[in-house]
Design brief:
Helix content: under 10%
Radius of gyration: 28 Å
CATH class of the domain at 63-175: Mainly Beta
Number of helices: 1
Length: 180
């Protein structure tokens, strides 16, 4: 809408004169513990506090994320050490263009490992072997995968650096490690 006036109200009525003022807004309050005369001040304070909270800087998100910039849906698994043992988790299914947080919070290690496959048989793989399975999983340990009833899958390494607090992996069709 162009021109001055209230948003959503015409500047002129149908006869070419000035438009009538919009109907008054009637406020109804349903709070038992306040008098109606206190309501607008209390509501304005709440609105001001909410606005202030939205303007305050927030702590940066510290997560390990993966974005699927490949041309088809991908399934993703991640492996990492929790300081005592290896943990492998999967599967996240990401449609084309989607991003997903695989691990929440500040990164606890420098190296993480990822395996992904697309619905056409393409893989992002490497030489760090971890235990996986066909359905959703969380597996502790990376030794004796086959003996323990799991698959043995090659993951590629992600070096996040010594001081990284968060990291995002971008999967594209042209960066499939191990693909020939």
């Amino acid at each position: 809408m162009s021109g001055g006036g209230l948003t959503g109200w015409p500047d002129r009525d149908s006869t070419g004169g000035k438009a009538a003022a919009p109907p008054p807004i009637r406020r109804q309050y349903h709070t038992d513990d306040m008098f109606p005369s206190q309501m607008p001040a209390r509501l304005n304070l709440r609105t001001a506090l909410l606005g202030l909270a939205l303007l305050l800087p927030t702590a940066a998100q510290a997560d390990f994320r993966l974005c699927n910039n490949a041309s088809s849906r991908v399934s993703v698994a991640i492996a990492y050490t929790d300081g005592q043992t290896w943990v492998t988790e999967g599967w996240w299914n990401l449609k084309q263009g989607a991003c997903e947080t695989l691990l929440r919070g500040a990164l606890a290690a420098q190296y993480y490992y990822v395996y992904a496959m697309d619905e056409r048989g393409g893989e992002w793989k490497g030489k760090a072997y971890m235990c996986t399975r066909d359905r959703e999983f969380r597996i502790e340990g990376r030794e004796n995968c086959l003996v323990r009833g799991y698959d043995r899958t090659g993951f590629f390494e992600i070096d996040t650096g010594k001081d990284a607090r968060n990291w995002t992996v971008q999967l594209t069709d042209s960066n499939q490690p191990g693909q020939r």
